[in-house]
Design brief:
By secondary structure, this protein is α+β, with helices and mostly antiparallel strands. It has a single domain (3-16, 30-152), classed as Beta-Lactamase (2-Layer Sandwich). The protein contains five helices and four strands, in the order H-H-E-E-H-H-E-E-H. It has helices at 3-18, 33-49, 77-92, 96-104, 142-152; strands spanning 55-60, 65-70, 122-127, 130-138. It has a four-stranded antiparallel sheet. The longest helix has 17 residues, at 33-49.
């Protein structure tokens, strides 16, 4: 875990409560359906390459769903989990695997923040150093889901 992730984990409750994770300045093109669709399709492609069936959800900065893909054979529960991962990353600016590791390391206070999901597989979508959305993947282990999300974002 990088120092940046440690700082984000420590700051996540304040970021959520104060709404200061990232303010849109209005100069960038909005993050919308076309970009979200590409991210979702890239996640499905990455999952197929690993012979995994997943659900992927892409949300905007406010946590509203832009795209959701549920591959054949994936439980309906994975849809809710993927969405919660995406929303958590969009709200905190932190990968959910970093939050999971923080909780495992003793920062259990993170679990008291409403809406936080501490399961790996969520990544914030960044543009120009600002959070514009989040992607959540569910269907494998935390590490597998995280790797698929990272691949979908070109990381």
């Amino acid at each position: 875990m990088t120092e940046l992730h440690r700082l984000l984990i420590a700051a996540a409750p304040a970021l959520l409560l104060c709404g200061q994770a990232s303010a849109q300045d209005g100069t960038a093109a909005p993050f919308g359906y076309d970009e979200a669709s590409r991210i979702g399709a890239d996640a499905v492609k990455a999952a197929r390459a690993k012979s995994k069936a997943i659900t992927v959800v892409v949300v905007n900065r406010e946590g509203r769903v832009l795209v959701a893909h549920r591959m054949d054979g994936v439980s309906f529960l994975n849809l809710e989990v993927a969405q919660a991962k995406a929303v958590t990353s969009a709200a905190t600016g932190a990968p959910t695997l970093a939050i999971e590791k923080g909780v495992e390391g003793g920062k259990t206070s993170l679990l008291s923040v409403p809406g936080i999901l501490a399961i790996g597989g969520g990544i914030p979508v960044m543009r120009g150093g600002r959070i514009v959305g989040g992607v959540g993947v569910s269907g494998g282990t935390s590490e597998e889901d995280q790797a698929i999300a990272e691949t979908a974002l070109g990381k």
